[in-house]
């Protein structure tokens, strides 16, 4: 995975990003999503939940409605297609029944590249999301390249040592606009404290202004972001 984004693509790829909550795909790899949709690849933003528990003083139903709308706005900004899996925010489960929707998603979408949460994360839903995606990847024959993303490293993701970087400098404003669409989460007000620091630090490591960092699963097939 490099930063040699060109104006034409050799082969249209499908990139599927699976996050636990509305705002996760956008904050963990929104730059990559904007870049690849802009190059003509198909990008799908999958939300395990609708953020039911994410707004204080609102019922689950009210929060889900507000946060679904925010996710749809963010997806429109990134020019990606949203999908929702139907788990409940703050109460994500791993059961034999809960593996099925992710397996079905992999069978339906047949992604070339999958990105999801790094599994060592202080948020239980992020950990569960990562494990469900890993299971679906294994049980559909490891056909996609699997990349893990960091979420607020140090606060949420721990022990994250990147293997790959993407220069997102050219799309960083589009990424920010998509993240800030999650108005109920006050991301714009706190962005510079967490996500903003991360993308600048990863840029320092990679040698550009802003970057996103990833861990590539070593048993991924020979499909790379380029
Ligand atoms: Zn989250």
UniProtKB/TrEMBL annotation:
Domain of life of the source: Bacteria
One GO MF term: hydrolase activity, acting on carbon-nitrogen (but not peptide) bonds, in linear amides
A Pfam family reported for this protein in Swiss-Prot or TrEMBL: PIG-L
Family annotation (InterPro entries): GlcNAc_PI_deacetylase-related (IPR003737), LmbE-like_dom_sf (IPR024078)
SUPFAM superfamilies (UniProt xref): LmbE-like
Protein name as catalogued: LmbE-related protein
Species this chain originates from: Aquipluma nitroreducens
């Amino acid at each position: 995975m490099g930063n040699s984004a060109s104006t034409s693509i050799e082969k249209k790829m499908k990139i599927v990003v699976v996050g636990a909550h509305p705002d996760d795909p956008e904050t963990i790899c929104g730059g990559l999503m904007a870049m690849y949709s802009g190059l003509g690849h198909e990008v799908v933003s999958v939300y395990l939940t609708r953020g039911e528990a994410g707004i204080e003083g609102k019922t689950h139903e009210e929060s889900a409605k507000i946060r679904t709308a925010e996710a749809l706005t963010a997806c429109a900004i990134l020019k990606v297609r949203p999908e929702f899996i139907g788990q409940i925010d703050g109460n994500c489960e791993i059961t034999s029944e809960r593996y099925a929707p992710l397996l079905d998603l992999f069978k339906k979408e047949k992604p070339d590249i999958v990105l999801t949460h790094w599994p060592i994360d202080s948020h239980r839903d992020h950990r569960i999301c990562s494990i469900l995606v890993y299971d679906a990847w294994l049980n559909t024959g490891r056909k996609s390249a699997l990349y893990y993303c960091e979420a607020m490293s140090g606060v949420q993701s721990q022990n994250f040592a990147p293997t790959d970087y993407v220069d997102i400098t050219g799309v960083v404003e589009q990424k920010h606009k998509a993240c800030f669409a999650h108005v109920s989460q006050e991301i714009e007000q706190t962005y510079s404290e967490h996500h903003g620091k991360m993308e600048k630090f990863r840029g320092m490591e990679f040698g550009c202004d802003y970057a996103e960092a990833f861990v590539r699963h070593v048993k991924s097939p020979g499909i790379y972001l380029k």
